[in-house]
């Protein structure tokens, strides 16, 4: 190797050393305590809100998926849909309607049970023109709750 290549060798050695040091870095893991603090770590775009109806960034959207329950959600392979707040559901012929049966042990942070009225309220907020979800939910023409645990 000639003297012309020497700076490149130093750069390569420095880059490898930097990558090894970076790979060895491990953030401090906090011990489990009986705290009510929930810590989420995502990289990427700035965080905008925890409101699932108005968030636009990927980081905020991913965070809301970790914080809120939904009637159903995708599993890790995005197929099939799996239960969440609804333990079972039925889709009617021609996709004209759907019925969801809610779990009875879901509660809000204050211990108040989650009911079908809460699902209706969430739909109404999502169907508001200020919501980023409005285009997706606008195809739903009506929503009803025949009892506290059926929508």
Automatic annotation (TrEMBL):
- The Solute-binding protein family domain is annotated at 81-151
Q: Which InterPro entries match?
A: SBP_5, SBP_5_dom
Q: Which residues form the signal peptide?
A: none
Asked if Transmembrane is a keyword of the record, the answer is yes
Q: Name one GO molecular function term.
A: peptide transmembrane transporter activity
Tell me the domain of life.
Answer: Archaea
Q: Name one GO biological process term.
A: peptide transport
Q: Does the keyword Transferase apply?
A: no
Q: Where are the transmembrane segments?
A: 7-25
Give the record's keywords alphabetically. Answer: Membrane, Signal, Transmembrane, Transmembrane helix, Transport
| Similarity comment | Belongs to the bacterial solute-binding protein 5 family.
Q: Know the name of this protein?
A: Solute-binding protein family 5 domain-containing protein
């Amino acid at each position: 190797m000639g003297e012309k290549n020497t700076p490149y060798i130093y750069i390569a050695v420095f880059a490898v050393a930097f990558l090894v040091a970076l790979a060895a870095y491990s953030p401090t893991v906090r011990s489990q305590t009986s705290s009510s603090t929930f810590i989420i770590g995502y990289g990427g775009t700035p965080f905008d809100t925890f409101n699932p109806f108005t968030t636009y960034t990927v980081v905020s959207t991913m965070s809301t998926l970790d914080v809120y329950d939904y009637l159903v959600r995708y599993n890790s392979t995005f197929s099939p849909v799996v239960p969440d707040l609804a333990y079972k559901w039925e889709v009617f012929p021609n996709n004209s309607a759907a019925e969801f049966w809610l779990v009875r042990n879901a509660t809000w942070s204050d211990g108040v049970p989650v009911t079908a009225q809460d699902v209706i309220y969430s739909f109404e907020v999502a169907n508001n023109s200020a919501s980023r979800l409005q285009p997706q939910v606008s195809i739903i023409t009506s929503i009803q709750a025949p009892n506290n645990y059926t929508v």
